[in-house]
Amino acid sequence: MSNVSVDGETADYSLQNDSLFILVDDSTEAGSQYEVTIRYSGRPQFGVLQNRNETIWSSQLPRTQRHWVPIVDHPQVTMKTTFNISVPSGVQVWATGAKIGEEVLSVDAMRYRFASQKEVPASSLSFAIGGFKNDSIGYGEKKINVAVENSLGSEVDQQAILDASQNYLGSVEEKLGRQYPFEQLQVVVLEDHNGETKSWGASTIFIYKNRGDIDTQLMRGIIGQWFGVQQRVRQWSQADALTLSQTLLIKELMSENSTLSGKDHPKGFTQSLYSVFGPERWNSWQKGVEKWQNESVRGFMRDSISKMLDLDDVISWNEYANFWYDHIGQPLFDSPQFSFDKERSSTQKDSVAYEVHYDLNEAEGTLKLRFTATHGYFGELTTIEAYEVYPGKVDTLEVTFTGKDDSIVLQVQPTINTLQLSSKGYPTLTLDSFKPSSFLINELRKGESVEERAQAARKLGYHSDNPDLQLAIQDFMNQDLEPEVEAGLLLSMADITDGASGTEQVFLDALKSD
């Protein structure tokens, strides 16, 4: 940070943690407005992606914009924008807003300018910098730009994307009865998604070669300009509200298969916060929306979809549910839970799966195991082995359960390190255990196999109500770890911190790692 001015006058400021405090006149009153200019430089370690082609672009993960521009990137914050971005000659820039100019600074440098005369959400600012082959087409008084990464060469039909963009934009406008909300549309086609799940920003769509069908990505991004940017969710966990609207429109406007590919997606990320906009959740909606509610309910949702945009700009699933309840009396206050295979072999019909929740009462020396069936169930008593692990010894005992829900209480010693269940002898049985954090930390330290340690690392994230675990995870991250264990710890940290500042570098390093 080199300079801050308020209404053209240099102002004193201070930096504390992630906040910039600017001193203004003592006579100011609440509600006063100022023009603040901030001059700064930095090397963002999060929020900006770079691939092997040296293309750089902005992430759309939550709270990423603050890492490359000093703003409060909350969905409620909106602003008019002007970007002046200088790059080496031969490199192009595409960004939020309309391209309003480019100039040669020297033999080696160019400057590009993009501006938005309409306020856009701070949480949707985006840009891409790299070597592109670009083309454009008029759309009424507006313009569509398509930039394809040079490395893709003839693998991508740029003209087809231009034509499709024009057609899809028109069909969505006609269905919604509303004009495209921005001056230009920038479509940027890249080789690799680098783990990104949300592929649109304000007036910008990112299409990834390894994400699957280009038409589906394009249509989703176009719809996302209304349901995703103009109307956006308050929390990432509420993504289903937008995905439902996108799905209803894409099912009506496109006849082709609308699923996406999960190829090259980081293993384990399907269970993290970042997956709510990801391909697996998207595909679940594409496969399950027609079974979720009857045709009359879905028909009302389709017919009233334009009215959803009259709700608040920043919404949650609850605003949608209240709208449906007021109009058709359907209490759809919980978003649906889909159960589809994850592009893997389907589960055998005779398989049985239980969740096992551990409830340790140290004061009374008891450990309660609660068995809840998640796929099939045993209709008769089933006995499995359990191993109580103590310092220097392991005690073996039997645990018996049956039915859809069952529980058993074990007497344990105060020094117990962990308890492990074995489904040996039941090849169709899968147990998903949720253990106390002390058990998981012990297994992370002393687990005999990489798989055991990785599972313990991942399950720490389910204790998101215990922020002290962040310190324990950071201690483990300073050690030499197997990739599977490191991935589990990163996902757990994401769950516990919910993307809090200070964890970004670790997450970015993992995305860059092999």
Give the SSE layout:
Elements: E1 3-6, E2 9-10, E3 13-16, E4 19-22, E5 36-39, E6 48-50, E7 56-58, E8 78-88, E9 92-95, E10 98-106, E11 109-121, E12 127-130, E13 132-139, E14 142-149, H1 158-176, E15 184-190, E16 200-201, E17 204-208, H2 214-226, E18 232-233, H3 240-253, H4 279-292, H5 295-303, H6 305-308, E19 314-315, H7 317-328, E20 352-361, E21 366-375, E22 378-390, E23 393-403, E24 405-411, E25 418-422, E26 429-434, H8 437-446, H9 450-459, H10 469-477, H11 483-497, H12 504-512
Helix pairs in contact: 1-2, 2-3, 3-4, 8-9, 9-11, 10-11
Explained architecture:
The protein is of the alpha+beta class and 514 residues long. Among the domains are: 1-41, no CATH class; 349-434, Immunoglobulin-like (Sandwich), CATH 2.60.40; 436-514, no CATH class. The protein contains twelve helices and 26 strands. It has helices spanning 158-176, 214-226, 240-253, 279-292, 295-303, 305-308, 317-328, 437-446, 450-459, 469-477, 483-497, 504-512; strands spanning 3-6, 9-10, 13-16, 19-22, 36-39, 48-50, 56-58, 78-88, 92-95, 98-106, 109-121, 127-130, 132-139, 142-149, 184-190, 200-201, 204-208, 232-233, 314-315, 352-361, 366-375, 378-390, 393-403, 405-411, 418-422, 429-434. The strands form eight sheets. Strands 13-14-15-17-16 form a five-stranded mixed beta sheet, covered by helices on one side. It has a four-stranded antiparallel beta sheet with strand order 6-7-12-9, with no helix packed on it. Helix 1 (158-176) packs parallel to helix 2 (214-226), helix 9 runs parallel beside helix 11 (483-497) and helix 10 packs antiparallel against helix 11 (483-497). The longest helix is centred in the N-terminal third of the chain and has 19 residues, at 158-176.
